[in-house]
Amino acid sequence: MNELICKIQELKKKKNAIILAHSYQNIEIDKVADFVGDSLYLSRMAAKTSADIIVFAGVYFMAQTAKILCPDKKVLLPDLKAGCEMADMINLQQLREFKIKHPDIPTVCYINSTAEVKSECDICCTSSNAVKIVESLHAQKVLFVPDQNLGKWVEKQLGNVEVITYSGYCPIHHNITVDDVCNVKEKYPDIKLLAHPECKEEVSALADYVGSTTGIMDYVKNSSDKKFIIATEKGVVDRLKRDYPDKEFIIIKENLICESMKLNTLQDIYDSLNNETFEINVDPTISKQAHKCIDRMLEVSNTGVK
Ligand code: 13P
Ligand code: SF4
């Protein structure tokens, strides 16, 4: 394993490459990653890197987003089967039909969407800036694709915007039920529940904190509590256990695992860098349009709501 890590580090230097890793990846990937974090952080890192090659240890839409932000760089996804079920729940045709059904309303797309979908939305968002992005539109009604749960959570946070959501969801987070919360809360009544906004509306409503993967990790960092209940993919719990060995983390239910995220191994990362596979490309017209959608998000996210 150490030998493989050294070989990856050498290849990175030789090829002027960086590795971006999402916090749901297999934890050993952190040993070779330059940046580990949530979707917003990784997009920002992709946008400002001077590397020639970006290896994205994540899922397809993330590598695609990096390619859109850095069209002149080589963006590699170690395993092409690493897709996102939620992103694939809406295609361009379905987006168009949704917009026709609800005309003249600005459309926000979650970053977990395809380049084609992004290319026909007004602005993008991630789980960490979704409230700010919707607020920045100063609209009474907003269309939100594809995640119904994140959209409805945003609506609740703002109180004065109607968020009309598409029917998509993340199968991992959507699978967490109020009963799961009740069961764990019965066992640990005084322990705070930290949840991802991809959870169902009624689950998020019971949480003490709702935020992105990085948001959850920052909450733990800044809290003096010693025990937490976590409602998101297991990768976050694995990292919390590693980083805070003196604290206890209870995952809300077993098997909260995104199989796609777990496809990448250190060997795959090595092969990807060594063979420069699998290169992600985006149609230039789609890319230009999708870039605008992502850029608007980065602008609002960096400067705050005006
Ligand atoms: P964040 O890391 O932005 O919270 O997103 C979670 C996720 O589902 C990524 O696919
Ligand atoms: Fe997609 Fe859910 Fe996996 Fe994230 S955790 S990549 S939203 S399927």
Task: Kindly describe this structure.
It is a single chain. The chain contains 14 helices and 12 strands. The chain is α/β, with parallel strands linked by helices. It has 3 domains: 104 residues, NadA-like (Rossmann fold), CATH 3.40.50; 101 residues, Rossmann fold; 76 residues, NadA-like (Rossmann fold, 3-Layer(aba) Sandwich). The strands form 3 sheets. Strands 2-1-3-4 form a 4-stranded parallel beta sheet, with helices on both faces. The chain is globular. The mean pLDDT is 97. Bound molecules: 1,3-dihydroxyacetonephosphate and iron/sulfur cluster. Iron/sulfur cluster binds next to loops.
List the helices and strands and how they pair.
Blueprint: H1 2-15, E1 17-22, E2 35-37, H2 39-48, E3 53-57, H3 60-69, E4 74-76, H4 92-101, E5 107-110, H5 115-119, E6 123-125, H6 130-136, E7 141-145, H7 148-158, E8 162-165, H8 171-174, H9 178-187, E9 192-195, H10 201-204, E10 209-210, H11 213-222, E11 227-231, H12 234-243, E12 248-251, H13 266-275, H14 284-303
This protein binds 1,3-dihydroxyacetonephosphate and iron/sulfur cluster.
